[in-house]
Amino acid sequence: MKLITTGSAGTMESNDIMITVEPTDEGGVQVELTSNVYQQFGKQIIAVIRETAAGYGVENALITAVDKGALDCTVRARVSTALMRAADCRDYVWEVRQDV
Amino acid sequence: MVMLNDIPHINEISNHGLFAGTAEKKTATFRQRYHQQNKVVPSLEEAIRRAGLRDGMTISFHHHFRNGDHIINMVVDKLAEMGYHNLTLAASSLAAVHAPLIKHIKNGVITHIETSGLRGELAEEISRGLMDCPVVFRSHGGRASAIRSGELHIDVAFLGAPSCDPYGNANGYSRDDDNGIACGSLGYARTDAKYADNVIIITNNLVAYPNAPWAIPEYDVDYVVFTEDIGDPKGIMSGATRYTKDPKELLIAKTAANVIEATGYLYDGFSMQMGSGGASLATARFLRQKMIDQNIHCRFALGGITGQITAMHEEGLIDRILDVQSFDLDAALSLKNNHFHHQIGATYYASHMISAAVDQLDFVILSALEIDTDFNVNVLTGSDGVIRGAIGGHPDTAEGASLSVVVAPLTRGRIPTIVKYVNTVVTPGDVVDVVVTEQGIAVNPRRADLKEKIEAAGLHVFTIEQLQQRAEALVGVPEPIRYKERIVGVVMYRDNTIIDVVREIDENE
Fold first, then answer.
1. How many domains does chain A have?
2. CATH number at residue A67
3. How many CA atoms are closer than 13 Å to the CA of B449, on its beta-carbon side?
4. Is pLDDT of B104 > 90?
5. Is A54 a member of any domain?
6. Taking CB atoms and an 8 Å limit, are A69 and B479 in contact across chains?
7. In a domain, A91, yes or no
8. Does residue A21 lie in a domain region?
9. pLDDT for residue B31
10. Whole domain around residue A35: which residue ranges?
11. Are B110 and B89 in contact (CB under 8 A)?
12. B384, B474, B478 ranked by CB distance to A71: nearest
């Protein structure tokens, strides 16, 4: 997947996560997370974000995440959508699970 | 002429000898005396001096002004200005508004704190190791017992009052000149007033004698100080505590009401206490409908009182209200207007040393931050290990009531409520009977009688382990909180035995 623009998905509501994806040329996938449950779930949220990006073959990106207690399934959904938007890609079938 | 020695058994009859005349008869009018005998002193500073406060002593405060309290900050600022050090601050509870105490802990004015709870910046700083001596957390009943027994000796009590007469009769509202500040019951302050060596009432509303009805009688009061500002009415209480609209809380409440009905504790003449949390308040609404449908009434409602309870009283569904703390303006107004809405003190509310009102409870609905698979409840520390709550009457009512029901969502955001081990044990599983979440009911195995009745009513009962696993399946396993060795808080059970400790949090990566 090639990222060409900034893509975002999610909200700042409770139990959601706001994901912003920016294309970068190098440095791998960097994740900047703020979370109200950082201490308890920070590592896990970052791992899910990285796994999801890797599932789409993204090699370089800056992913900013503002988490309000989202479950893993929500994190995956928001990251997937933000990546699709950053790649300006409409070639998706959300009904069929793509990653994992 | 009577001779003492003529009286048989005179040595066994307590007496002060023979009558020797009276003091000179007073002839001044009531109004003239008023100016000579009153307890009003010109300033807080003067009252502190006259009370004989010295370094190392214990001062006390009540928390009926909640987050609108200006008394504690004002008094401790004054004590700092007067050069006091090494004082113990024993408040019935502390709120976020008391963050300025941090500087007075740093400058050595306050070196020890006793309270029911801590919130906001002060709580966070204490969790990070602000104080050398651990904070002592007691329940409302435990504090009353400690004061009564002398374990917690109060040298000077500083008690804010929305009305007081010049002789010291003080109350949480006024019948005369209401001026915007009312807190309803002064129940927690009554224990301080009764047992403290010196009592200073601080009021913004000096009313004519006698300020009846009073919460604190003049014979428990030494000095009265007038000041314009005792607190912010908006922070002291809001209109009526609103019913929740959260469908999750409503489902919990409805289930809790069904559980209470199923267990047989909802009968004509029952007694109850409701917490002020969303789900526990909403339970009152579902119970109300059952009471109307079945034509039964409640003999008494106890505790922290809300407008929901006073509305049911005014409807004729609740005979008596025993009010140690009024949670909203509707409750305060009811205390003022309804004859059978009765104000009680903390000792009678919840002390284990006497036959207290909590011992007459059929059921209590309580909330929780965490419940573990041994049914232990934490209401004091958050999921990050930081102090952020208050014990309140939780253990007192859980033990006193025949049926204690803890209501809580299975998860809050991503934080599980039902866990393997609570961070801090405040109320032991020994006195917690039923847990109700939106995803199921669990009954303490100790209460097989309840499980049988609840299942007979067609409600499904899970094990607490099943609920814990369900929460874990949803949110995952949180990383354990990192603590340092140092103890920053000591948690007392209601009999003032140490049930748990709170440790300093470790924030290093």
1. 1
2. 3.30.230.10
3. 8
4. yes
5. yes
6. no
7. no
8. yes
9. 85
10. 7-86
11. yes
12. B474
Decide if B415 and A37 are in contact by the 8 Å CB cutoff: yes
Chain A residue numbers with beta carbons less than 8 Å from the beta carbon of B476 are: 41, 44, 72
Distance CA B325, CA B470 (A): 37
- CATH number, domain B247-480: 3.40.1080.10
The residue whose two tokens read 């409840």 is B377
Domain range B38-236, CATH architecture? 3-Layer(aba) Sandwich (3.40)
Q: Could you tell me if residue A98 is inside a domain? A: no
Q: What residue spans define the domains of chain B? A: 38-236, 247-480
Q: What is the chain A residue with the closest CA to B482?
A: A39
> Amino acid identity, residue B360?
Q
The answer to whether B384 faces chain A, any CB pair under 8 Å, is: yes
Write down the residue that tokens 């800056």 correspond to. Answer: A62
Residues of A in contact with B479 (CB under 8 A): 39-43
Which residue shows structure tokens 């020695």?
A: B5
Chain length of chain A: 100
Q: Is B248 on the interface with A (CB under 8 A)?
A: no
Contact B414 A43 (CB under 8 A): no
Write down the pLDDT at residue B33. Answer: 84
A53 token code pair: 């990006």
Is B481 in Cβ contact with A41 (below 8 Å)?
A: no
pLDDT in tens, A30-81: 999 999 999 999 999 999 999 999 999 999 999 999 999 999 999 999 999 9
Q: Check A39 against B474: CB less than 8 A apart.
A: no
